[in-house]
């Protein structure tokens, strides 16, 4: 329970720091109640006078203390002629620092879509002055392409752009992660098709995004 309250309070702290005003107390309380209700609903039980918290397994692994981690993913719907991209930046405590969910129009292979998701993620963090020490993606072939890229490859220009962005944000590690460790980014990518436009969150965490974070933490 304390960890869930911490997420709500930290999100509100970011809101105050970066928007220079606080929300009304009753709005914060309503958000906290909704957040906790969603948590209990997802684990399939409600608290009944017990102070003990159900055991949870965290599939997402935290970056080093004081650092940020970027998770990226893409979703391909060939019949629609567009792809969904989801990227999320979180800190050591698992708190969402920034995220986005967007679509790109075009016919892309799964590998190309994953590569574009990485590029969009790096562009996003660079534009917002964020510096993740770790970047994770659940496409092993994409990681291998970026690591061993060749300018004459079919997507060589995109890979070169990613390499430049890697240097600009001083990212120390780019690695493969299993799908279970990339759930929030995956959900943002698949949800991109449902929005009328691109969605961005910077130094805030909407209730919509909080449900994905809970889904990532609860087995």
Automatic annotation (TrEMBL):
One Pfam family linked to the record: RVT_3
Domain RNase H type-1: from-to ranges: 71-192
GO molecular function: nucleic acid binding; RNA-DNA hybrid ribonuclease activity
Top-level taxon of origin: Eukaryota
InterPro entries: RNase_H-like_dom_plant, RNase_H-like_EbsB-rel, RNaseH-like_sf, RNaseH_domain, RNaseH_sf
Protein name: Ribonuclease H-like domain containing protein
Source organism of this protein record: Trema orientale
């Amino acid at each position: 329970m304390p960890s869930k309250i911490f997420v709500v309070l930290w999100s509100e702290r970011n809101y105050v720091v970066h928007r220079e005003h606080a929300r009304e107390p009753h709005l914060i309380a309503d958000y906290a109640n909704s957040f906790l209700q969603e948590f209990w609903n997802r684990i399939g039980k409600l608290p009944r006078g017990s102070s003990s918290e159900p055991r949870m397994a965290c599939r997402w692994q935290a970056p080093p203390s004081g650092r940020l981690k970027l998770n990226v993913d893409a979703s391909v719907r060939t019949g629609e002629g567009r792809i969904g991209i989801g990227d999320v930046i979180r800190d050591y405590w698992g708190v969402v620092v920034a995220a986005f969910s967007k679509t790109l129009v075009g016919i892309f292979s799964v590998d190309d879509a994953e590569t574009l998701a990485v590029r969009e993620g790096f562009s996003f963090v660079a534009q917002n002055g964020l510096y993740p020490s770790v970047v994770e993606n659940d496409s092993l072939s994409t990681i291998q392409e970026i690591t061993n890229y060749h300018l004459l490859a079919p997507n060589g220009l995109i890979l070169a752009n990613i390499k430049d962005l890697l240097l600009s944000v001083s990212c120390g590690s780019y690695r493969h992660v299993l799908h279970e460790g990339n759930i929030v980014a995956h959900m943002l990518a698949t949800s991109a098709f449902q929005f009328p436009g691109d969605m961005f969150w910077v130094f805030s965490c909407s209730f919509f995004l909080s449900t994905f974070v809970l889904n990532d933490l609860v087995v």
